[in-house]
Structure of Pseudouridylate synthase RPUSD2:
Amino acid sequence: MGDRWPEVVREVLCEDKAVLADLPCYPEPAFAAEQVQQAGADKEKGAGADGRVLGAGEKRKAEDGEPGRDLKKAKLETKALKAKRPGFTDDRYNETSYYIENGLRKVYPYYFTFTTFTKGRWVGERILDVFAREFRAHPAEEYERCIRAGTLTVNYEKVDVDYRLKHNDLLANVVHRHETPVLAKPIKLIHVDDELVVLDKPCSLPVHPCGRYRHNTVVFILAKEYNLRNLRTIHRLDRLTSGLLLFGRTPKKARAMEHQIRNRQVVKEYVCRVEGDFPSEVIECEQPIEVVSYKIGVCKVSPRGKHCTTTFQKLGFNGKTSVISCKPHTGRMHQIRVHLQYLGYPVVNDPLYNHTVFGPEKGRGGNIGKTDEELIRDLINIHNAENWLGMDGDSELSMFKRTDLDEAKGCSAGDEEADVGSREPSPCDEAGDGADSPSVPASVPVPAPAPTPPALPPSMPVRPPAGSKVTVATQTGQEAPDLTFNPDKLTWDEHCYECKVRYRDPKPKDLVMYLHAWKYKGPGWSYETELPDWARVDWVEQDE
């Protein structure tokens, strides 16, 4: 089982933070730069039912007419339907379990239902036509099979392939979900009381469900293994960034802490390891930062960007790389990493900003030598060619879903620390409006046989291992993860592409970045973590 899992598994987030299709994740799909650049344009400008872009006056007229009243009614009905959907409950946490293998925390595959409401441009179209055009993870024949089998439903009811979508239709697709593994490092609790949880987040672990991660996230692991539930996110860290992470246990405390961060009452100090011998004097970088693309989560220094300031001070040099203290006084996306790139001392193993995609000088002094469109195109080409892990797990890059720009902002690649405390609400918030729909019960019938898949190499298993079951994974509640793979907990689905393909485990170097949130200090409180091993001045990276 050590090579079953993908180095990169990409999923797409719909408007309510869920996807409709289980995406085959290896080999990587070819992404289209035009979709990234154009995403969100229609929504920003406004579009008519025929897809024509409307001006402001036309848009107001359209909304004031009879169709506009119908649309408003449909939106109210949609909200009512949405409010009835369950959020993250105990059943969600218990739908599968973990095991440890090759130093990685892995999730047993499980059945899951992705949901989304019908988009305006889909109204009046055949459901099969929409899926064949908008979701290219599978051919139209596969979606037709799912519709006929009743695993792709409308308002949780089976429909015909010729069904035409209506405004408040809730689409649901049952998938056999495989998650990406993360490093099997423990979450260290630093402080826990009735109002606050403070912890040291391991690298490689996303804060909350987003993209291709769900159970392999901080909030799920805290709920399943530490019995810490109903937590409210106060801020967040990049998936690859380790260090201090704070959660509120009450709405009042979460709002208070968010207010302190937003009003810059919290002093934050990070530590990182950068290339070269960093200057001995204190360096203050005040270069403005602009988001090049929310879609793929990439920024650069630009006069058009927002003001931001970071103070850097060298802590030591081992003859090759330097350990430095970083104090961001603002909270722009990737602020520390972008400023270090600009100064010419990028984080040693930063998969995004320490790359020649930014030019021969890797973006030093803001010298990239290409337009934003060319940079986006090159980033996508590198990702496709190398199964590149530079794009964070929270980015929304995909050829299968034209996600609007403002939707991409919610789950784009995270910040080292954001000014806005909780850009992405915790899945455990009281609203109970999560995108997750009920899990598939064990009694759900196995869909009819799919068309014969392409022949696989002899090394790839095409039959389920002994002891596997076509049922929802064994539930374990708050038990610790299995220390070895347990075949009795493996589910197998004959229609699941990932069940038939073997993948390499990700390499540890792809799951670590030498950037750590070290100390936070606010009005009347302060917390700090132990320093990682790589932060020792005399530390030298071992060759693989």
In short: The mean pLDDT is 75. The radius of gyration is 24 Å. The chain has twelve helices and 18 strands.
